[in-house]
């Protein structure tokens, strides 16, 4: 399963639930190379060459440092000798005429093989936010995959993004970032084969309709028996309304500035509705009524 969204919208929180059953494992770092700009999705769309893809794989995604300096990237899930073997196998396959879709699937699974085998997992979930925007392409590579798009109030996404070292550093910039990425994610999810795409609204899951949204999501994923029970137990123990951080944006703005920002968000929201964007967050008034 691939979980995606705009970023700062609950993909990791939802992904943690699927680490509960012993048959599932949620990859504990965003792999990125398959969905983000300059990666596998761009290769399959014909935007970059194999050479550029492999260069980015090594320089951008194998070794990365997190915000506090801790190691991140593919190095967490695959040792360097196995990683290099996977890359060599990919090169040979492409040289022998294997299609990019098949070679990319082989590379992805080679990279994850040891990580999944060590855990004894037969199913896995990955939480790179760009998964939603790249879902149409990833569906070609992984025909059996399921895609979940997590959506959250754009004002709170903007407030969260503004605290990150990698995004816009002000709420207005964060709102533009959210709007652009939501549209890309919606387009990617729309193009998925019927029955493979599902949307989860964070405030619905954690506050407004937790039982119904959880039930719908478990049914979509085909979880039943012990796996179903494990996820349900983890949800009720660990997933709380506070994780939605409803109204976070109000901690940064007040008075006239808050009213201006809220008005701008509502204008963007109305434009999304007019443009028939499917994966909409809850209406602003509904979110505000929850305490935001």
Task: Write a concise keyword list for the protein shown above.
globular; 7 strands; 3-stranded parallel sheet; 292 residues; mainly alpha; two-stranded parallel sheet
Q: Residue ranges: pLDDT <50 for 5 or more in a row? A: none
Sheet with the most strands: spatial strand order = 1-6-7
Q: From the alpha-carbon coordinates, what is the Rg to the nearest angstrom?
A: 19 Å
Structural class computed from helices and strand pairing? mainly alpha
Distance between the termini: 31 Å
Strand content: 5-15%
What can you see in these coordinates?
With 292 residues, the protein is mostly helical. The chain has a domain at 24-119. The protein has helices at residues 11-17, 40-44, 50-62, 80-95, 100-119, 135-141, 154-161, 171-190, 202-208, 210-221, 225-238, 255-274, 284-289; strands at residues 2-5, 24-26, 64-65, 71-72, 123-125, 147-151, 197-201. The strands form three sheets. The chain has a three-stranded parallel sheet, with helices on both faces. A two-stranded parallel sheet has the order 2-5. The chain is globular.
Give the SSE map.
Layout: E1 2-5, H1 11-17, E2 24-26, H2 40-44, H3 50-62, E3 64-65, E4 71-72, H4 80-95, H5 100-119, E5 123-125, H6 135-141, E6 147-151, H7 154-161, H8 171-190, E7 197-201, H9 202-208, H10 210-221, H11 225-238, H12 255-274, H13 284-289
Parallel strand pairs: 1-6, 2-5, 6-7
Antiparallel strand pairs: 3-4
Kindly summarize this structure in a few lines.
This protein is mainly alpha-helical and 292 residues long.
């Amino acid at each position: 399963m691939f979980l995606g969204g705009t970023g700062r919208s609950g993909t990791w929180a939802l992904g943690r639930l699927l680490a509960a059953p012993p048959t599932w494992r949620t990859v504990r770092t965003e792999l990125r190379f398959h969905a983000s700009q300059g990666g596998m999705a761009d290769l399959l769309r014909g935007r970059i060459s194999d050479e550029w893809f492999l260069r980015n794989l090594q320089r951008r995604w194998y070794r990365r440092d997190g915000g506090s300096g801790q190691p991140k990237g593919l190095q967490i899930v695959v040792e360097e000798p196995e990683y290099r073997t996977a890359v060599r196998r990919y090169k040979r396959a492409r040289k022998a005429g294997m299609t990019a879709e098949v070679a990319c699937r082989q590379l992805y699974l080679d990279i994850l093989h040891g990580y999944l085998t060590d855990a004894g997992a037969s199913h896995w979930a990955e939480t790179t936010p760009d998964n939603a925007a790249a879902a149409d392409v990833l569906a070609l590579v992984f025909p059996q995959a399921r895609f979940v798009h997590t959506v959250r109030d754009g004002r709170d996404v903007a407030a969260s993004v503004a605290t990150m070292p990698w995004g816009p550093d002000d709420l207005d910039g964060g709102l533009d970032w959210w709007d652009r990425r939501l549209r890309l994610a919606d387009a990617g999810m729309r193009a998925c084969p019927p029955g493979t795409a599902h949307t989860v609204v964070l405030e619905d899951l954690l506050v407004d309709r937790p039982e119904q949204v959880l039930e719908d999501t478990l049914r979509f994923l085909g979880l039943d028996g012990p796996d179903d029970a494990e996820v349900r137990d983890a949800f009720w123990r660990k997933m709380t309304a506070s994780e939605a951080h409803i109204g976070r944006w109000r901690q940064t703005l007040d008075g006239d500035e808050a009213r201006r920002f809220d008005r701008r968000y509502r204008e963007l929201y109305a434009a999304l509705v007019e443009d028939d964007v499917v994966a909409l967050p809850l209406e602003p008034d509904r979110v505000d009524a929850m305490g935001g």
